Amino acid sequence: MILANAFCIVLFVDEILCSLAGPPSPPGQDPHGWRVPVDCVRANELCAAEPSCSSRYRTLRQCLAGRDRNTMLANKECQAALEVLQESPLYDCRCKRGMKKELQCLQIYWSIHLGLTEGEEFYEASPYEPVTSRLSDIFRLASIFSGMDPATNSKSNHCLDAAKACNLNDNCKRLRSGYISTCSKVSATEHCSRRKCHKALRQFFDRVPSEYTYRLLFCSCKDQACAERRRQTIVPSCSYEDKEKPNCLDLRNTCRTDHLCRSRLADFHTNCQASFQSLTSCPGDNYQACLGSYAGLIGFDMTPNYVDASTTSITISPWCSCKGSGNMEEECEKFLRDFTENPCLRNAIQAFGNGTDVNLAPKNPSPPVTLPPKTEKSPALPDDINDSNTMYDTSVITTCTSIQEHGPKLNKSKEQSLCYSETQLTTDIMPDQKTFVDQKAGSSRHWAGRILPVVPILLLKLAL
Prior knowledge:
52% helix
């Protein structure tokens, strides 16, 4: 009898503890019911494993085929499928730039989110995971690995130094030479293939570490020879310029027909949209996110570039204008100003060129990084390293040299410090995951802690 009572008590306590702990979480969710962020390829796999989600997703894709949003939502079956999928992992999924299945991931993302947008939105949310690194982190790592002393090279041509540094890296040299060769005109009468040129540029900026690409794109300049070299970085005669400038809204519409171009443009607007509530005019005061989004646009229809070789101001623009906009001229001008008059983008480029970042005081200050002592100053990049820029535009280099030797007198003001190189950024950065505190779970642990000590006492009394 005593043993039977003891067994019943043990079962009773076990039932209480199991009920307090709650049921096991389904795949794709954390213990408290919140969906764990996954990339869209993985989210599609999770959806395919659930018959209900899989059938609804097939329905939605059929609904989107050849229909606009209003027509789609007029169909009750399509609307029901969209509502169900908003509760699936597909709704919160994101993609990583440069991931192995990036195009597939983006196709899955837009198959859901194009059905959620209210027509053509001026700004679209980025399908990519947010950038968590900052320029200050990159500068610190770059200084440790390169041992570069900015004082020794403060008066050099930073853009020429960037080209030499690229040629010292096998991957950078190979891919840079590849796009320069592809984007160069074979002869004065034969034009290059813009499609092949853009593809080669995308490969360069997606596969070469930002440590090298940023130095080529955003090097600081004090003379026109340097600024012209910077402008020529992407071989604009093939990748950027054309006989006539298309309308900017038409160019945007063309870009949005391609999932990759649409995604990179949305990412640019997300990370470079001027914010007058921040210190730097950038969202989250993150220069790094804006510069990465800018570089991500190169090699698409919306490719931006420097409009001139000015040393006093930085003006960026895609190859388009607002002529012929009709009653859409105001919207066109607004779109164009996001490039030409963007304080976030301009400040980010200048910050990289100066080797500076906004000073954001951390909540818990970390101890200063102790750098290994330098036994000797790092030698400057050798002058005899070939610069493959000469492969595609010898006249530009000749012009640059002429300006340096016979041009206007250079500004005698204090030179800006050398733009530091940066270490490779990984594209496999997971987004910041929110931490949720389940009050019920805390209460459950509290009661479990009070029940367990009572069990031995009950057993002892029964034994007596």
